[in-house]
Amino acid sequence: MAKVLMINPMVREEDDPKHVPMGMAQLAAIAIKKGHQIQIYDHNAWRADDEQIKEVILSDNWDLIGIGGITTAYASIKKIAKMARKILPGVTISLGGGVLTSLPKEIMKWLPEIDFGFIGESYVTFPEVLEMIDAGKSDWHKINGTISRLEGGELYFSPKRELIDNLDALPYPAYDLFPVEEVYFKNSAMMYSEAGMLATRRLDINASIGCSLICRFCYHLGIAGDMRYKKDAKGKIVNVEFDQPKNYTRTIRYNSPEYVVQLAKYVEKKYNANYLYFLDENLMTMDVFSRRTWLKEICKLWKENDLVPKKRKDGTWKGLYWSGTSHATLCEPEILKTMGEHGCAHLVYGYEAFDDRILKLMGKGSTRKTNIRSFFWTLEAGIRPIPNQIIGFPTEDFDSLKMQMKAWDDLGVMVKPHFATPYPGSEWFTVYRKKIEEQYKGQGKKLGLSDDLEAFILDLGDATRVSAVISKNFNAVELIGLREMMVHRQYEKIDQYEQEWRKKHKIPEGQPSTLCGQDNKEKNLEIKAAAK
Asked: What is the domain-level CATH number for residue 189?
């Protein structure tokens, strides 16, 4: 049977490793169930030096070294791939995850060390690759859902891999292959609620795949039905495409409540866990799709399986507190109250903005009113609402920034916004790709890279710092400075800078504080579209 080394690259270097990579954990479990020999080096958890990475690569005679991760792990992936190829010139190296799916042609060009890659969902593709290895073959191009190199170096897209229907058919994640005791449990605490702060043995689970929204800054990378294969006139696949303006598709899949609760019970019993974090993109999507039965049934089974937390005198508890995500227009007081009564400690809300014009432009499906309403509904249910916000949208202006601050005052919260970032695979990456490349012009050459776009990918982080700017009104320096003034509630200083900004851009007092449409030939199409 195939002997595989799977490597989880480093991500969020500025933060402690807190989450087991669920996709890799599930793929490992699938392969082990089929009899293959799987080892995992969790570089994000161990964060070892180059010598230790080298020791891991040389530790066995691998049939395949499989690397996988998200786009923000690209720098780590690039380094590991080069090391592996240098140390073991003849080994087969593959790459999967969002980093490859979002830009398959570019990534394969930038990383010649990679023999083939997995595009989209790999639950079926990965076992087929291992079967081919067992057969002593390497015809990766014959396996659906891959991109590979033909003789002569030409890149070849195999036909699209269809998504699986039944998530309950998947085995539980192979948590044992990751350093849960040595690393992840030590970083269990989540500073969002009392229970989260006191968590000592937290693990993650995933109960669904998909989200019904079309947020233009977000990406799903082929696991929510948003990916289409682009063909040339002869019918040959030449690339993949994701959300295009006015062209969206969504496939929503979720585990049954029985599967979810049995997995929770398994995690509690085997690992003595006291907290679970649902990594799902949007729990409320599943609740709406199930006609408001999914979360209610999960809570019912949570109680029947004795998982509802019961506090002890020493401050610890028996059972599992849990948390996840919600959405302003999809939540309802009744289900929030039920969730709160069954151990839900906090819910993350992607409010993003409190300006209706910007919310409509980004496709969020919410309004200032629904954002504020959901916040208080959640508090009343005994759950801590965690607001996530962003600045730097294409039509962001002084008015929208002040509306953010006013909302914080109304809610009594402190928020440090992220920056609007056009991640590959999102609609706004497609729309603003030329603008992104212009901002990184010449950077690729300076860094010794293939092109300027690779410099952007290397620069991407978790949106807590600026990379490419898509705002039409503010540059990177302005966004950083404005965010600092917003966080410190410095309304007066923002007003002062607005006057300087207006003079610089020759926009008189009384006119909208926006550069969108200031050109004679350019109208503010986005604002008009949002107003319809």
From this structure: 3.20.20.70
